[in-house]
Amino acid sequence: MVNRMRATRAHRDNRRSHHALEEVRVSKDTKTGVTHLRHHLCMETGMYRGRKVIDMTATALPVKASSKPAKK
């Protein structure tokens, strides 16, 4: 079968014009200078918009050892 309504190069490229990758937008913490995603709290300090939201020392999870043997 033949494609009856073949998309021209212009139509194909116009459709693909929105497919480009964008850079990640990050903000810098004013006190520590650590970068973080916009509208998200800083994962190192627990601060968001100048306020302490989460106590990061209490949220640190202990690392448990894996019970499975390592593959070679």
Written overview of the protein:
By secondary structure, the protein is α+β, with helices and mostly antiparallel strands. It contains one helix and four strands; from the N terminus they run αββββ. The strands form two sheets. The chain has a two-stranded antiparallel sheet with strand order 1-2. The chain has a two-stranded antiparallel ribbon with strand order 3-4. It is flat, with a radius of gyration of 24 Å. The mean pLDDT is 84.
Summary keywords:
72 residues, alpha+beta, two-stranded antiparallel ribbon, 4 strands, 14% strand, flat
For this structure, the quaternary state is single chain
Structural class: alpha+beta
Neighbour order of strands in the largest sheet: 1-2
How many runs of DSSP E, i.e. beta strands? 4
Would you tell me the overall average pLDDT? 84
Task: Provide a concise account of the structure shown.
The protein has 72 residues and is of the alpha+beta class. Helix content is 11%, strand content 14%.
